Amino acid sequence: MWTPLNYGQNVIVGDKIRYANEALADHKKVYKVEKTDQYYFVIAPVGADALYFRNPQEKVVRHFDVGHYLTLERWTD
User: Fold this and answer.
1) In what order do the strands lie in the sheet with 59-62?
2) Rg of the Cα trace of the chain?
3) 76 or 27, higher pLDDT
4) Cα distances (angstroms) measured from residue 33 to each of 20, 23
5) Under 8 Å between Cβ of 35 and 12
6) CB 2 within 8 A of CB 72
7) Looking at the DSSP assignment, which residues form a beta bridge with residue 42?
8) Rounded to two decimals, what is the model's pTM?
9) DSSP per residue over 50-76, as a string?
10) By residue range, what is the domain housing residue 45?
């Protein structure tokens, strides 16, 4: 089930994330958390697109932006 990711919530490597804003073209694309840090985390597309050594589609997301500028959802079982 997709649940909203709120400001202050941490993510762990392996979490599946997607944009919650349906107006974005990437709304249906699912990302996997590749790296986490105190201030940011790195996401990359799940699937065949993520087979490169250094994926050009990686995105860096600052924890501060979640809930303020970005609306994300995390997959929970």
Assistant:
1) 2-5, 72-75, 16-19, 31-36, 40-45, 59-62
2) 12
3) 76
4) 16, 22
5) no
6) no
7) 35, 60
8) 0.81
9) GGSSS-TT-EEEEGGGBTTTB-EEEE-
10) 2-75
Query: Domain holding 31: CATH number?
Result: 2.30.30
| CA–CA gap between residue 52 and residue 40 (Å, rounded) | 22
Number of domains observed in the structure of the chain: 1
In the numeric block, the tokens 């994330």 are attached to 17
Burial class (CB in 10 A: 0-12, 13-18, 19+), 29: middle
What is the per-residue pLDDT across 6-61, written as a single tens digit (0 to 9) for each? 998 999 999 999 999 877 767 778 999 999 999 999 998 887 555 555 667 788 99
For 75, the token pair is: 């997959």
Q: For residue 27, which amino acid is it?
A: H
Residue type, 15: D
What pLDDT score does 67 carry? 87
